[in-house]
Amino acid sequence: MHILFLTDNFPPEVNAPASRTFEHCREWVKAGHRVTVITCAPNFPKGKVFDGYRNRPWQRETMEGIQVIRVWSYITANEGFVRRVLDYQSFMLSAAIAGPFVRDVDIVVGTSPQFFTTCAAWFVSRLKRVPFVFELRDLWPESIKAVGAMKDSKVIHLLEKVEMFLYRQAATIVSVTKSFKRVLEQRGIDGSKIHVVTNGVDIAQFTPRPKDAELVAKLGLQGKFVAGYIGTHGMAHALETLLQAADRLRGQGYAFLFLGDGARKAALKEEAARMGLDNVVFIDSVPKADVARYWSLLDVSVIHLRKTELFTTVIPSKLFECMGMGIPVLHGVAGESAEIVVEEGAGIPFEPENAGQLVDALQRFKANPAELAGYRERCLAGAQHFDRANLAMRMLRILEDTVAARRRR
Fold first, then answer.
1. N-term to C-term CA, the chain
2. What are the domain boundaries of the chain?
3. What's the CA gap between 28 and 206, in Å, rounded?
């Protein structure tokens, strides 16, 4: 089977869509299938093309057996709604043009969070007369409204119509959460074509390790109880809550580490400086191969999203990396992901945007090393349930069944 996968994020980018797509495609190649990925020049999140790449109409490379075609797109930083939409739309057009040149395709997969990529996947699938699969990573454009980037309007209503069109046109929808599936069913989408394949962790890469002594010394973390946030610093994440917790805990042996970039990164650094926080360390994004070194520094990981109904349906992918590393989680996201934290015994949920509850949980963990060690053990046991290789095989079976169903018609 030849799988054509369209995504505007792919390694060497290190965000969740890039990691999931690469790790799934790698396993599909190992299973004997051909995989071609159409993506753009790596530039997320700063909007600067990575060293060794150029923003050209057509570039080819091979990554662990995956054929990667990189096309031109309008590149901008991950900030500013209008510019980002131009970025998405330019990739949609380039991918739609490039897709027909990939031969002998059996199935086309397009991934969100935004759906312009899936528009291109639908178009290419129609030209090739093969099934179109919508990998649903976010309820977009609902998430635009949830973070306050755009209010309800005629434009939003138009985007919602396009969204529903794509759901209906998809031969199969692969959702990353059960909650997304329920929402689509409530909107009238046939539940029999919606399958859930959660995010997971590459347990060969994310495994327990001692604190990286070189980084501990470099960052001045000796003797500190380190709480860390690793990931995108965006409008959706409300990381001001972590700064408020750091303010309350200054001088008590805690350090807060922020690793990553995003639309709110500069503002967060300015706010930390204004507050005079000497227990906060900001680090820019690092290569994927180095991320585990920084995970190793953490005594606990903080996962956080704004307090809004929509985010009760999401499962932050970093939860599974924490579990793979054996790092207990303080989980400031309500809903389905909090249920996983409780069921797996991976950490303590707290109310989103409630700095007081976060402080209480941090103090509890710091004061009870034995309890913390128990959470570490349960994290490692729970990670086995979300092994990326197994999840990739689950999705592969869904793709195979979709192709077989089309051929029987």
1. 18
2. 2-200+387-408, 213-386
3. 20
At 348, phi and psi to the nearest 5? -125, 120
Task: Please answer whether residues 358 and 242 qualify as being in contact, where contact means their C-beta atoms are separated by less than 8 angstroms.
Answer: yes
Fold equal for 2-200+387-408 and 213-386: yes
Name the 3-class secondary structure at 337: helix
- The DSSP element (H or E) to which 332 belongs, if any, is strand 329-332
Report the SS3 class of residue 139. Answer: coil
Residues 296 and 211: beta-carbon distance below 8 Å = yes
Q: What is the model's pLDDT at position 81?
A: 67
Dist CA 74 CA 80 (whole Å) = 13
Are residues 285 and 317 in contact, defined by beta-carbon separation less than 8 angstroms? no
Looking at the predicted structure, is the pLDDT value of residue 77 above 80?
A: no
Cα 364 to Cα 356: distance, rounded to the nearest angstrom: 12
- The answer to whether 39 and 69 are in contact (CB under 8 A) is yes
CATH of the domain spanning 213-386: 3.40.50.2000
The chain-wide mean pLDDT, for the chain, equals 93
What span, in angstroms and rounded, lies between the C-alpha atoms of 249 and 246? 5
Query: What does DSSP assign to residue 276?
Result: T
Q: With CA atoms as reference, report the closest residue to 20 among 241, 236, 201.
A: 201
What number does CATH give the domain 2-200+387-408?
3.40.50.2000
DSSP state for residue 387 in the 8-state scheme: B
If you write DSSP's letter for every residue of 225-237 in order, what string do you get? EEEEEES---TTT
pTM: predicted TM-score of the whole model, two decimal places: 0.85
Tokens of 93: 């057009």
- What the block records as the tokens of 311 is 């985010």
Q: What's the Cα-to-Cα distance from 370 to each of 240, 364, 379, rounded to whole Å? A: 30, 11, 14
- Residue 150: per-residue pLDDT: 52
pLDDT at residue 152 greater than cutoff 80: no
What tokens does 46 get? 């700063």
The token pair that represents 369 in the structure block: 């090393």
Helix axes 16-30, 388-408, angle to 10 degrees: 70
Identify residue 275 by its one-letter amino acid code: M
DSSP state of 201: B
- List the one residue out of 328, 331, 305 whose CA is nearest residue 383: 328
State mean pLDDT over 110-129.
94
Instruction: Provide the token pair at 323.
Output: 């579990």
Digit-coded pLDDT (tens) for 259-309: 998 889 999 999 999 999 999 999 998 887 788 899 999 999 999 999 988
